[in-house]
Amino acid sequence: MTFEVAADAYQAFMGRYADPLADQLLAFLVPTPGQRALDVGAGSGAVVHRLADLLGADAVAAVDPSPPFVAALRERLPDTDVRLASAESLPFADGDFDLVIAQLVVQFMTDADGGIAQMCRVTRPGGRVAASVWDFGGGRSPLSIFWQAANELFDNVPDESGQLGTSAGELASLLRHAGLNSVIDTELAVDLSFDSFESWWQPYELGVGPAGAYLLTLDPAQRESLRRRCAQLLPTSPGPHHVVAWLAVGTRD
After folding, report:
1. Is residue 229 domain-resident?
2. Where do the Methyltransferase type domain residues begin and end (predicted)?
3. 194 vs 208: CA distance, rounded Å
4. 89 inside domain
């Protein structure tokens, strides 16, 4: 699995899903002017760009452990505090933020309890911590068709369904374990469409994330078999392609 890729490659692969999810997430959270917010694991910027529009670029910050992503974000958001850091070691003072968000990040944390604890630490009393992860466990993620096809064709497929936070209740449990209160456990739905099967498939070949990395391990014949099976499983273009993410939000005392 790798995110040491160009930000544009990540955007082409996951941005088509992360952008509409960020719209749903922020519509649920309703950040208000005057608040300060942090985007943890910002990636290509789906959340932090929207936060900057809502709160002002100087009222938000972002971290990511990938140097290419950090460089791209700094270029695109020069007035935003963007730092190279992981969730497990946030370079901010206690209580710096009113809202701390990790979209599509918890499943990739090396220490999820530690990462959530850091998110809580930098949240002020009365502030909120939010985390979302695609429903890989229930087969409703935007990548589930890819992984379904791979499991039908091959053995020992690392299909992401076993990662922490990808099944019902896991994110909420993490937030409660971290000491957050009034935890909301819900889901966000996104409806997607594609111009063609190839427009859906081609970004997988960029080698982004677990799916892209797995595809690169296959020989050409195996890749073609997987491509054809995905074409059979994907709803006819332009869709509908209905996907779901788990969302948990908690309040710090």
Report:
1. no
2. 38-130
3. 19
4. yes
Instruction: Supply the DSSP symbol for 13.
Output: I
Model pTM greater than 0.85? yes
Residue 201 lies in a domain: no
* pLDDT at residue 192 in the model: 86
Number of CB atoms found within 10 A of residue 121's CB: 16
Q: Which amino acid is at 149?
A: A
Q: How many Å apart are CA 141 and CA 205, to the nearest integer? A: 18
* Mean pLDDT for back-to-back runs of 10 residues, the chain (253 residues): 69 90 98 98 96 98 95 96 97 98 96 98 98 96 96 96 94 98 97 90 93 96 98 81 95 97
- Alpha-carbon span 93 to 88, nearest angstrom: 14
pLDDT of residue 3: 63
Residues near 205 by beta carbon (within 8 Å), at least 6 away in sequence: 212, 215
Helix (H) or strand (E) holding 224: helix 220-233
The total number of structural domains in the chain stands at 1
Q: Do 136 and 108 form a contact (C-beta atoms < 8 A)?
A: no
Range of the domain at 111: 7-141+160-193+243-251
* pLDDT attached to residue 90: 98
C-beta neighbour count of 62 within 10 angstroms: 28
The residue among 163, 146, 160 whose CA lies nearest residue 205 is 146
Three-state SS at 85: coil
> Between the CA of residue 48 and those of 58, 136, 206, what are the distances in Å?
11, 24, 24
Classify residue 130: in a domain, yes or no.
yes
